[in-house]
Amino acid sequence: MSRAFLELLAREASAVEFEGPIIEARARGADPAEIEDLEQAKVEALKVRALLKRRARREAELSALYDTAGDLAALRDLDAVLEAIVHRARQLLATDVAYMTLHDPAQGDTYMRVTDGSISAKLRALRLAMGAGLGGLVAQTATPYSTADYFADDRFRHKDHIDEAVKEEGLVAILGVPLRLGKRVIGVLMAANRSARPFHQEEVSLLASLAAHAAVAIDNARLLQETRNALEELSQAHRTAREHGEAVERAALAHDRMTSLVLRGGGIEDVVAVVTDVLGGSLAVLDDLGRPLTGNVGELDSGVFEAAQASRALGRTVRRGDLLIASVDVGGEPLCTLILRSDDADERILERAALVCALLLLFRRSVAEAEGRVRGELLDDLISRPDSPGLADRARRLGIDLGAPHVVVVARHDGQRERAAFWASSQAALRHGLAAGRAGEVVLLLPGDNAGAIAQRVAAELSASLGAAATAGAARNGPRDAAGPRAGDRPRAGVVAGAWVGDVAAAYQEARRCAEALIALGRAGDGASAAELGFVGLLVGDGRDVRGFVDRVLGAVIDYDARRGTVLADTLSAYFGTGGSPSRTAEAMHIHVNTVTQRLDRIGKLLGDGWLEPERALEIQLALRLHRLGHTSTRQTVGPDSI
Question: Is pLDDT above 90 for 291?
């Protein structure tokens, strides 16, 4: 090889420049042998040049692969790893586009994961079935494939949606190599040009080497991500365990506080205070009928009571909006319901509080039932065995003074015996009285002297408790006034000197007749004593208080006559006696009909509206007859007849 060719090789001259020494030899007239030697030397020099060029390119590729491996090893985020792989593939092969598909085990195909240099939306959203298109064939066979002109190459199974995406991107030459982990293909790495271009074996090997590094980097990134996920799960599990431990400890402390309260004699209000102190928010406790025992959470809709029913069925707390609802039942019947208004609270504490409240209510109920039995037995003895010794002492031990005025109430109901008896026992304990349950009725002995008002209250409250009409009759027991006992009253054995005990048995019978009369008169659900039953009260009342009846019905007219010296009562008798005719009344009394009209107007004002209604008129006529028979006190005339 001549020195000239060595100089050309040394300065990395282009292939055209290697013709220079031969042209110079021919120009100076060199012989054919010398020119032939130069031709041979040129060929050898070009071979050396090509070898040096390939080695330089290989060195550059290896350097690039080394840099790529370093870059991939430094990456930890999977998305960043995939983007770096595709970008480096495009750079190393100097192609227009590079992209990567990954295997989808769920659907059994590959999907486009990352692209670099792409402008087509269809290509970025492309999915390749196994064996479909160039990428699908590489994924299926785990073998590199390349084509200088994709659409003219019939080695691939062309699919319309694949060809449309390739055509929209403008790709012509495509090279694809598998991403392999052992024998498993996890995806395909591809490089493509928008013009025809053959891919040499060196380029295929280069892309395959990059794919090998990429597969390892992808797997490392996946393992790292899985490790991160596992660490995060462990961290979350640790936080959950710590929070659970703290919640259990907090629930145990709250339970200890509530237990201590119960042992010290605390009530439901104290339990509510503990729960709100620990959990915050506002707490209400409802009884078996949904009525608040303590607390207030506002108006409750039907959904809250449905949630309470679900809580009893499931045996745990139920959430409805910002309300936590825990309900406890006994024998299938609701006992109490706790409603906590709070955004975030420990359900276990609320459930324990519900159990504690249920135990308190059961204890109260047991105490009330025991006390109710004692009170009921005493009342039964007062009614059935009034001459039994020691009744007053037994009453005194219960805090009841039988010498004070009391009212006996008989409340008839529709057969809810247990609920009615429990209500009556509670009322008796609260009002320092006695109560006893009997078939179809409850009997109460309550302090007071206004029998009618007490009967009305008992009827209303018991009806509300039962959710059905309860009818109450009442009779006063004990001395009527300072003058002494009423007819038939007698002192009982064991009564302190000076105290007076009325006949409870007689009062019970009168109260019972009043209740029956109310039902017969169509006034079920009402309450009254004999005094409120009008002339019917004269029939059912034990005392036959005729004077009181006349005073209630006709007293205003009689008093007016006594004060003014008028004869309104006589005029009223004549009016009813003549069938309600003013003219015949005037004839009977020998007065002018206008005078009758004026007197009737005055009577109407004294008796009030409705005095001519049939039932009211009947009572007035009966009162007039009794008045004429002399059952009222003597009234003196103090003035002339003004009307």
Answer: no
